[in-house]
Specification:
alpha+beta; Sulfite Oxidase, Chain A, domain 2; 2 domains; five-stranded antiparallel beta sheet; 13 helices
């Protein structure tokens, strides 16, 4: 798939792909360029006379990669938006909060099935990483277009290039920030949540405009050559494509070093490798040891990751020595020690906990149901609950829960995990556990729960 040293372009008078006086089918639906485009074409700037000579490039290979992205990227996008909704925009606890007309419709995020958020984030992060080799291959396949001069020959092509800039720029930004957020240290000096959300909408805008413009070209290219024919063609029989090239087919190609079948296998193998190296953080079991790209998801069996340690949160054993839980919302404030909480009816449930970064794990939790605590506080039918941590600062030191999240039979103030007291890093003396919500809203080191009456 590699290209040797680029060659200068032949004179445009003998090369129809660069001659502004001719306009082979460019997929734009517009005819020959106006005089403006001709004038621009005569003033070729330095650096645009590069020739790319791989015989694999052409509309078919570009369209094949594009078809994969057309199927996968909407899934990644929708799951990303659903993740934002799961954070609870109605409580202004999704980041960013004030997004104007980009605000998603409010709805109660479901608590069943309990693995819903785990599945959502597993798909979002997993597919987002698996598709990276395809994205890179697609960019490789269209790189000659970046050096095409003039960059556009019609208003339709101008629109196409602007949408492509938004599409590619937004996609690369989402990939880079997403991958770095998965690691222990996030290197950028701005909020990942805010940047990732707005970056997603830049990508969506480019995608919505670009796909209708290029879809007819993609369909024609894929219909022109069958996948079966490509898979039967080896390197020795690989030839450059014929027909309208849209600036992709080389005028002076080198001999092939790889067949198109091999190129598809190479990219598919890369995606499969990424899948093997990431899926373990979601599916668990022995596969978790293979999640080498996920520092938090690669944990021994029987343990689960810690995004923020007690030390990082400023929580010490001394700080929780005299801990009491405060319940508010009813006629009088209720205060309970951990021993008093342990004396109340205990509930045990096996629930997954999942993070926005994609890692998840399933543990057995024991504690007091939230609806029982609401009754103790004097609120029989809570419409919501605000949970505050004794952590003094931090992005997720507090969270609000919906009515269905408070009322669920498995929603609890957890005191133990897997039959043992919580560790300090995992939220001792008590933490929230609610099915199907983002892990950061399972607040650790709970100090106060304020139930709001319905």
């Amino acid at each position: 798939m590699r290209d040797p040293a680029p060659h200068p372009a032949p004179d445009s008078s003998t090369d129809p792909s660069t001659d502004p006086s001719t306009d082979p089918d460019d997929g734009s639906g517009f005819g020959s360029p106006a005089p403006l485009w001709r004038a621009v074409a005569r003033r070729r700037p330095p650096g645009t006379d590069v020739r790319w000579r791989s015989p694999l490039r052409g509309p078919w290979l570009t369209s094949a990669f594009g078809l994969v992205l057309l199927v996968v990227l909407p899934v990644v996008t929708v799951t990303g938006l659903l993740s934002y909704a799961a954070y609870g925009p109605r409580f202004d606890q999704a980041y960013p909060g004030d997004v104007g007309f980009l605000r998603l419709p409010d709805f109660d995020w479901p608590t069943d099935p309990p693995w819903l958020y785990r599945l959502n984030q597993g798909l979002h992060v997993g597919l987002g990483l698996v598709v990276v080799p395809v994205v890179l291959a697609k960019l490789w396949s269209v790189i000659p277009k970046l050096f095409q001069w003039p960059p556009a020959r019609s208003l339709a092509q101008v629109l196409e290039r602007v949408s492509l800039l938004m599409l590619v720029g937004g996609l690369l930004f989402e990939i880079v920030t997403g991958v770095l957020n998965i690691q222990y240290d996030y290197v950028f000096g701005f909020s990942f949540y805010t940047a990732h959300y707005y970056g997603a909408w830049v990508f969506i805008a480019g995608f919505v405009v670009h796909v209708p413009l290029k879809l007819p070209t993609m369909v024609r290219a894929l219909r022109g050559t069958s996948l079966r024919e490509v898979m039967r063609t080896g390197r020795e029989d690989t030839r450059p494509e014929t027909g309208p090239g849209h600036g992709l087919i080389p005028a002076d190609p080198d001999p092939p070093t790889l067949s198109r079948r091999g190129a598809l296998g190479l990219v598919g193998g890369g995606s499969l490798l990424v899948l093997v190296l990431t899926a373990g953080q979601t599916v668990g079991g022995v596969a978790r040891y293979a999640a080498v790209l996920m520092p938090r998801g690669r944990q021994p069996a029987g343990t689960f990751p810690v995004n923020k340690t007690a030390e990082a949160a400023g929580i010490s054993r001394e700080a929780v020595a005299g801990w009491r839980l405060t319940l508010t919302g009813g006629a009088a404030e209720v205060s309970l020690t951990r021993e008093q909480l342990l004396a109340l009816p205990q509930h045990t449930a096996t629930l997954p906990i999942a993070c926005v970064e994609g890692w998840s794990t399933t543990q057995t939790w024991t504690g007091v149901r939230l609806r029982d605590l609401a009754r103790l506080a004097g609120v029989t039918d809570p419409s919501s609950a605000r949970v505050d941590s004794i952590q003094e600062s931090g992005l997720f030191r507090a969270a609000s829960l919906q009515a269905n999240q408070v009322a669920h039979a498995d929603s609890m103030l957890a005191l133990q995990v897997d039959g043992a007291d919580l560790t300090l890093d995992h939220g001792y003396p008590a933490r929230i556990m609610v099915p199907a919500i983002p892990g950061v809203h399972c607040t650790k080191w709970v100090g106060t729960i304020d139930f709001e009456a319905g």
